[in-house]
Amino acid sequence: MSITLGIPSEAFAGETRVAATPDTAKKSIALGVEVLVEAGAGSGAGYPDEKYSEVGARIVDGSEAFFADIVFKVQSPSEEEISRLKQGAVYIGFIDISSDRPTLESLTNANISAIALERIPRISRAQSMDALSSQAGITGYRSVIEAAYYYGRFFPLMMTSAGSAKPAKVTILGAGVAGLQAIATAKRLGAQVFAYDVRPQVKEEIHSLGAKFIELDLGESGEGEGGYAKELSEAAKKKQEHLLTEELKTADIIISTAQIPGRKAPILITEEAVRGMREGSVIIDLAAASGGNCPLTKEDEIIKAYGVTLCGLTNLPALMPGDASAFYSRNLYNLLELIVTPNDQGSAALDVLQDEITADALVTHEGVVRQALLPGN
Ligand SMILES: NC(=O)c1ccc[n+]([C@@H]2O[C@H](COP(=O)([O-])OP(=O)(O)OC[C@H]3O[C@@H](n4cnc5c(N)ncnc54)[C@H](O)[C@@H]3O)[C@@H](O)[C@H]2O)c1
Q: What domains can you pick out in the chain, each with its CATH number?
């Protein structure tokens, strides 16, 4: 009996991505795995059922896709979805491990070996499996496109016989994966780009993309462990808010991405800064899911405050489902290669612990929540 890989449809509102494309389905079949795709699973991303059938995948109903030996998904599984999984199955996808303890408990009770993409170690060998980064890059790109859509003016300097328009001033807060992609995209559209991050070592990367680094003297570094930022002291936070408020009043567009793993996002755009911005300016707050970098942000809403458009959409990759699914499913296929070993009979053996990358990202296994996730660790 060959190992089955299920690709169910995503039920989460607004989710258009799919966890395997016909291309990665074909590669998975070549590994000796039988691929079961729920009818219509790829249609929101531009991958119709026929394309999966053409490469040898079987189109099935949702129950069969969920009842596979391995299940690939995008959004964190709901209780109902977990109840449809087979005891002992392997589940790979985003799993909200920080705030979603019931999910972990349900996965444990169902004896699922769950690999959370948020836990893939950020080491060179795992870069091709790093779905957080592949999707953050898309988020950064799309944030600029959204900003350009809501901004009623030009990005580049425009000189015409009917007069000229000044270039837009775009300020990016937080120069991680999403922020750097936003800088590059805003530059390509011809804006004047400024960027700020609490980790001083990103200055060079910001300059190499042609943007200007905003330097603030906070009296301490925000450099944390593993390349991430750490939370600032209360005094430094106050200073940062004050210095940024003056700086941000002159921005036409702000794209803010600042996050600290496992914590509420820092406030960088005060209400006073928003009030000081020109009418028609735009803020895209990419930290909306973790509380927002602006206190006025409303999660998953686009609102107007003091004449400024404030966008708190939390799933921008779902607005680019073709490429987002292609990148995401390549990340997952690369993980599949680590846990599946093809044999001479055309099928394969499955082991989630044989590689340190999947072993590290395994959050539930054999009926227990893995040690590192228990309170106090
Ligand atoms: N495979 C790899 O080695 C790998 C892959 C991806 C990212 N990384 C690194 O991981 C790090 C985090 O990247 P990310 O995109 O996940 O970041 P993130 O989403 O955690 O945060 C976004 C940015 O916000 C910044 N930030 C946090 N608090 C701030 C504040 N108060 N003011 C201003 N900026 C603030 C952070 O420094 C970061 O650059 C980066 O160093 C990145 O290069 C490494």
A: 3-130+321-367 (3.40.50.720), 139-319 (3.40.50.720)
Centre of ligand 1 to C-alpha 21, Å, is: 29
Residue 157: per-residue pLDDT: 97
For the question of residue 228 being annotated catalytic, the response is yes
What local confidence, expressed as pLDDT, does residue 219 receive?
87
CA distance 79 to 62: 15
| Pocket-testing residue among 138, 198, 205, ligand 1, by greatest number of atoms within 8 A of Cβ | 198
Q: Enumerate residues 6+ apart whose C-beta is below 8 A from 159.
A: none
At residue 229 the predicted structure's pLDDT band, cuts being 50, 70 and 90, is confident
pTM value > 0.70: yes
Task: Give the tens place of pLDDT for each residue, 261-292.
Answer: 878 999 999 999 999 999 999 999 999 999 99
Q: What is the DSSP string of 106-148?
A: HHHHTT-EEEEGGGS--SGGGGGG-HHHHHHHHHHHHHHHHHH
Residue 318, helix vs strand vs coil: helix
What pLDDT was estimated at residue 176?
Answer: 96
Cα–ligand 1 centroid distance for 177 (angstroms):
7
Known active-site residue 130 = yes
Containing H/E element for 325?
helix 321-339
